[in-house]
Design goal:
2 copies of one chain form a homodimer.
Chain A: H1 6-16, E1 21-22, H2 25-28, E2 46-47, H3 52-64, E3 69-72, E4 89-92, E5 110-114, H4 119-128, E6 131-132, H5 145-150, H6 158-161, H7 164-167, E7 168-174, E8 180-182, H8 196-200, E9 209-216, E10 218-219, E11 223-231, H9 234-247, E12 251-258, H10 259-269, E13 280-288, H11 293-301, E14 307-311, H12 314-325, H13 327-334, E15 338-343, H14 346-363, E16 368-374, E17 379-385, H15 392-404, H16 423-426, H17 429-442
Parallel strand pairs in A: 2-4, 3-4
Antiparallel strand pairs in A: 1-2, 5-9, 6-10, 7-8, 7-9, 11-13, 11-14, 12-13, 12-16, 15-17, 16-17
């Protein structure tokens, strides 16, 4: 890849305006370090276009000079997929944050959002129109639509609404030659060739720069109930989860966590004891148009559970959620953690939970392992403290175990730079060859995020 | 493309066994004519492999000799996307019809099916395990999993469960060089590179030969209610549909049709008068774990409707469905029809219904126009009788009207050979260039279904 010239910087300034090309290292620094703090690069320029046409022009001049680009949204990624580790130009999409009222189709339940709009702003616009956005996770206030598409973000509601790919009806995107594809009509049935939105979802900025998306919304359901369920062991919790999933259409979340995590959260954040004391917990939330509490109570009656607490009013619901959501903050307080994000098949998840603890302890005897995740999806977040966050002995051991059990080495964070080395564990040479062929077809010069994924 | 040699035929026989290479024109004829009867070709050989390894070997020898292949499933397509119109070898996947009990994951709600399994057999296996398959349409007994992936089949339940792409968690497929990609683990969160299953869905056999798929199932819901609702005009029906969609999570189908279609069905199939007499009809079906009739009745109370009939027991439900499902048979009886399958944005659908009738009448004054479709998806099936099924004046006029109104020229049938000429109406040069680049990347010789789509 070519090194950006002064001429390129000047051209970028003429496209987006001088104030939107940042070159002062003190200013660009925050764009060059990832959320974890573990991955730090540098960039000759952060370019902040204000329209799809400006994005196209930026890509065109970079392509013309063979200069690599890293597209960046809210920079909340955890695998170094959006930071300039090899001196790339950063193309920040944050100014494309429009969700205008005219773009909300109330009858169809859809809206069009700019790539830089945050997930929270999409949800707010949807809710104002009587709908909701199906994808939600903790970084909602910073993470952007574009980033969520690049990583095919999942989050806590995948069991009900699917991942980001399932919400994206169309995208507007700039290809590597600066041409623009735009398919934002939001038609639910539209089989006119290859589905580029699905291909772009999860491609981590390597195939196109997404500038906007047409998103499907879900009905807004304000009647909610949260329940904390206690179990003796993981298998019991998973069987309960499978049973609830089948008989409760209103089930929206089923978070799995453990007594040690709850103790850490209590210790670090001074929470009261949970209303249920158990070795393994499921936190479930149901949402419906009518009060879902009776249906949940009926469903819980038919499962094997050692204790259950129910919360209906918002403050009580939030109090129960804190035992799960505060895991990240509590772990960071004793951290910084080495974070892995993996998926196991349902029938391997219980054994994996105990085996992974033993395995990590054997690799790093002084470490501590914290597990939590989405029970219905098999998505387990493995956080390890007491080791260097960059200690790849942990990845080597854990990711091999995951693959041996039929799992995925990346549930929802993606591959980025951080996990590239392990991608062949999950993908055959035939699959990698096909992916490389697609990458080369759409970006023959390799200017779009060339150092991630493949 | 090369013409198949006797040597190739011999090699194919050695791969799949002599009885599975059909060359007698009297036998191959049914593989060379499409469902509509309008598109008729010829093939030097129909090859019927019995395993993925055999498919791979077949593709390899054809690729080695530069011979084109048309993959074929149940051959129920309507756009000549699966028939050998240019003398291609037909690769029939029908023998790959396995859905073994071991492949059904009852806890996760998933199964693995061979490409040749019919949609009805998938649904039956799912239902036997306490689940159901989300995609359903009239050709269920013949249409196959592979064909449904090739065309990204939609059908009547898209409003609740999405299209085929939304069900496909993974595929096993043979690429154009004979290599096999297999990703059938069924993990719900698995972000490890480009999502090939989504790309293959809707690619009409041009990128890979799908040999099997991991399919997500939906909860089996046996409590059902069907209601026939009558309206004065289309807009009133669409507003009712939007309202029902928002307040009835159990809504599974919302079929739109018209008084003239009902009259034709009654005339051709000797049905009794419908219990509701109206200009425009919606047939809605709700399914839940508990009786959905009270919720439907409550919802219907709040919409503007001129008449409603409700059916709960299976025979009565079927009797109401006949007014809609018998449209195809009744139209064929006065046909053969010229069939178009288009999608309109919700806010254009009502005007389109009247405009398209006037437009077709102006193009072909002696024709009759029959409309029906899926109200919530905006998918309208435009059937025209009294003209030649190949009369492209109809396509020229109707498809231009569709595009002028922001619609799609192919809702769920695909492009195939029949609609290739009009694809640029819906897809920009940048999109077509990107699609061609992907096609060339994965099939550089152009041996997989080279005459369809692009």
């Amino acid at each position: 890849m070519a090194i950006p010239s002064q001429r390129l910087i000047d051209e970028l300034r003429s496209i987006v305006g001088p104030s939107h090309v940042l070159t002062d290292p003190a200013v660009t620094e925050s764009y060059a370090i990832d959320w974890t703090g573990r991955f730090r690069g540098a960039t000759p320029a952060v370019v902040r276009p204000g329209s799809t046409a400006e994005v196209a022009a930026v890509v065109r001049v970079c392509a013309g000079q063979g200069v690599a680009i890293v597209p960046q949204g809210g920079n909340t990624g955890l695998v170094a997929g959006g930071v300039p580790l090899a001196g790339e130009v950063v193309l920040s999409l944050r100014r494309l944050d429009t969700i205008d009222a005219a773009s909300v189709d109330v009858a169809a339940g859809q809206l069009t959002a700019g790539a830089g709009a945050t997930i929270a702003s999409v949800a707010a616009a949807a809710r104002a129109a009587g709908w909701d956005y199906g994808v939600d996770w903790a970084a909602r206030d910073t993470a952007t639509v574009g980033g969520s598409i690049a990583t095919n973000a999942g989050g806590v509601r995948v069991l009900r609404y699917g991942d980001t790919r399932a919400q994206v009806l169309g995208v507007e995107a700039v290809l590597a030659d600066g041409s623009v594809v735009s398919h934002l009509g939001g038609l639910l049935k539209d089989n006119t060739g290859y589905h580029l939105p699905s291909l772009v979802c999860g491609s981590e900025g390597t195939l196109a720069v997404v500038t906007g998306a047409r998103l499907a919304l879900v009905p807004r359901r304000d009647e909610r109930v949260v329940s904390l369920l206690g179990f003796r062991h993981v298998q019991q919790a998973l069987e309960a989860c499978a049973s609830l999933r089948r008989c409760l259409p209103s089930l929206e979340a089923a978070e799995l966590f453990f007594a040690d995590g709850v103790a850490l959260v209590r210790e670090q954040l001074a929470l009261p004891p949970p209303p249920v004391v158990a070795s393994v917990y499921l936190l479930v939330e149901c949402a419906d148009h009518v009060d879902p509490a009776p249906a949940l109570a009926h469903a819980v009656d038919s499962i094997d559970v050692d204790g259950a607490a129910v919360a209906v009013d918002p403050a009580q619901r939030k109090a129960l959620w804190r035992y799960r959501e505060d895991h990240t903050e509590a772990i960071n307080a004793v951290g910084p953690p080495h974070k892995l994000d993996v998926t196991l098949p349902q029938d391997e998840l219980a054994a994996f939970c105990s085996d992974v603890r033993a395995l990590i302890t054997s690799v790093a005897p002084s470490s501590q392992v914290w597990l939590f995740g989405q029970a219905a999806d098999g998505n387990l977040h493995v956080n390890v403290t007491g080791v260097e966050p960059g200690d790849e002995r942990i990845d080597d051991a854990v990711l091999q175990l995951v693959v041996d059990r039929g799992g995925s080495i990346s549930a929802e964070h993606g591959i980025g730079t951080a996990k590239k080395r392990w991608l062949p564990l999950n993908r055959s040479e035939a699959e990698l060859t096909a992916m490389r062929a697609i990458k080369h077809a759409l970006d023959p010069q390799g200017i779009l995020n060339p150092n991630v994924l493949l």
